Each structure stands twice: as C-alpha cells, then as structure tokens.
Amino acid sequence: MSLWSLASMMLITLVSVISLYVTLALGLTAAYVPVQKLLSKTHSTSFLKKQWDAEIDHCKTAHLKLILLLQKRMETIEKEEAEREANRRRQFPVSPDDYYTKDEDMQLLVARFLSMNTQDKERMLDKNGWAWAQVQPLIDAFKAPDVSVSRLHRVVELFLIELLG
C-alpha cells in the first residue's frame, strides 16, 4: 500500500473518530449517519482488496519492465561479446606462437594464405578483411629460417599434400 493511501486512510479514520466523539457528546445521531457510511465504505474489504490489488499490479508491472530492460541489455552484451570473439578469431596471427593459439580452420586458412602467390594473397586479403601490415610479420617469420617456424612450415606442407594429394 502506498504512503498516500495509508495517510488518507489514517485521516479518514481520525475524522470519523472525532465525528463519533462530537456526535456522542452533542447527541447528534443524524450527523453520525454520513460519517458511519463513509467509514464503512472505506474500511470494507472490497475497497481494501481493490487498493491492494492495484498496488500489487503496479509492483508486478514495474518488476516486469525492469526484467525486460535487463533482458534487452543482456542480449546486447551477449551480441557484442559474440562479435568481439568472432573478430578475435578472424584476426590474422601476428607471430608463429599466435598462429598456434588459433583454431584449426584458421591455421589452415593462414597456411593456405602463406603458400599462395602475391595475386591470390591480395584476393584473400580483401576477402578476409586483412591488411598487409597485419600479415607481414608472419610472412617475414615464415620466410626466416627459424626453429619456431618449422612447425608452421610443416602445417603448410601438410596442407599442400592434402590439397594436391
């Protein structure tokens, strides 16, 4: 029950009690009848039940609006998180170590990219939204005779064998 409803009921009760005392003191029975009707109307169970139901409905509505708002916010956050994760997965690896953290499909895509000629690399850059500045460090590492890159060479070889054989 709201504070306003409670205050109004207390005021009505106070008025009716004062009226009752005045009526009894002065013996005015006729003046007591309207006050009694008002008192019975305000304190009837149907009146309180309607007021109670209205307050409960108001609380439920406010609660459902809040839940709806929170669900929309959660969907937005989940969508943003999925986009960030997809972007992270699509990023070209910057080093051989980063290459091995990618999933197998991305590793094969990168291995295929590294084994292509320049014209095909250009097409693949456009298709995947990569830039030369992104791919150049791994290309340089792939060309360098380094022990850490030998595994990458092996993946490229396996890819070529699978592709050709």
Enumerate how many helices there are, as a single number. Answer: 8
Number of strands: 0
Radius of gyration: 39 Å
Number of domains: 2
**Head-to-tail CA distance between termini:** 79 Å
Q: What would the average pLDDT be, to the nearest integer?
A: 75
Query: Biggest β-sheet, characterized?
Result: none
Q: Based on Cα principal axes, name the global outline.
A: rod-shaped
User: Uncertain spans, ≥5 residues at pLDDT below 50?
Assistant: none
Helix content: over 70%
Order of helices and strands: HHHHHHHH
Strand content: under 5%
Summing up helix and strand content along with how strands pair, one would put the structural category as: mainly alpha
Give a short summary of the structure.
The protein has 165 residues and is mostly helical. It has helices at 3-26, 29-42, 45-90, 96-101, 104-114, 118-128, 132-143, 150-164. It has eight helices and no strands.
Explain this structure to me?
The chain has 165 residues and is mainly α. The protein has two domains: 83 residues; 74 residues, no CATH class. The protein contains eight helices and no strands. Helix 1 runs antiparallel to helix 2 and helix 5 crosses helix 8.
